């Protein structure tokens, strides 16, 4: 009788374990943020605008390539563009950025839509940009572009951004080495400014990540006194 009761209790334990395995725990699924279809379309970068304009052409020229391979071709073509051509897309990006900013100023989301800035990394693990990071150095051509844009607009009121950039690009090519040197000097100074700011920025970030290092150096200074 003792053996039979022991076997029965073992069977009950096994059946209870199998039931526990068969019934998975219910996990609360995270709530997805509701998107407003009428929300302003986000501003696109110069590269995104360029990619949108050449995507169909790349597809037609490379029908056997995968999406990833076609994207690499687009990126290569973008890198091969001259400063004048890139300037046209950057002008468009600035216009699109202003459009988005104005649209967001007038936008009122519905009460059931939460509009909060995303934190941390994006979809593909790309770190969010630090607004305090140093502004990249400007090239000689872009100093020339900034210097002549308004005059070129006034002289060519009917031209599109792309056409206007081509006009400015042609003017840049017509400059003598002496005339270009003025803008090249500005670019050189800005490159040095950027290098100094990057060094200071990295030092500040390192101190924030490891405050003990700064404390140790200050303690060492007080000991020497």
Keywords, please?
DNA Binding (I), subunit A, DNA binding, mainly alpha, HMGB, DNA-binding, 8 helices, nucleus, 225 residues
Helix content: 55-70%
Radius of gyration: 30 Å
**CATH topology tier name of one domain:** DNA Binding (I), subunit A
CATH level-1 class of one domain: Mainly Alpha
For CATH, the homologous superfamily of one domain is named as High mobility group box domain
Number of DSSP helical runs: 8
GO cellular component, one term: nucleus
Protein name: HMG box domain-containing protein
GO molecular function, one term: DNA binding
InterPro entries: HMG_box_dom, HMG_box_dom_sf, HMGB
Description:
This protein is mainly α. Among the domains are: 43-105, DNA Binding (I), subunit A, CATH 1.10.30; 133-215, DNA Binding (I), subunit A (Orthogonal Bundle), CATH 1.10.30. It is 68% helix and 0% strand. The mean pLDDT is 77. The protein has helices spanning 2-22, 46-61, 67-80, 83-106, 140-155, 161-174, 177-209, 211-224.
List the SSEs and their pairings.
Elements: H1 2-22, H2 46-61, H3 67-80, H4 83-106, H5 140-155, H6 161-174, H7 177-209, H8 211-224
Short description:
The protein has 225 residues and is mostly helical.
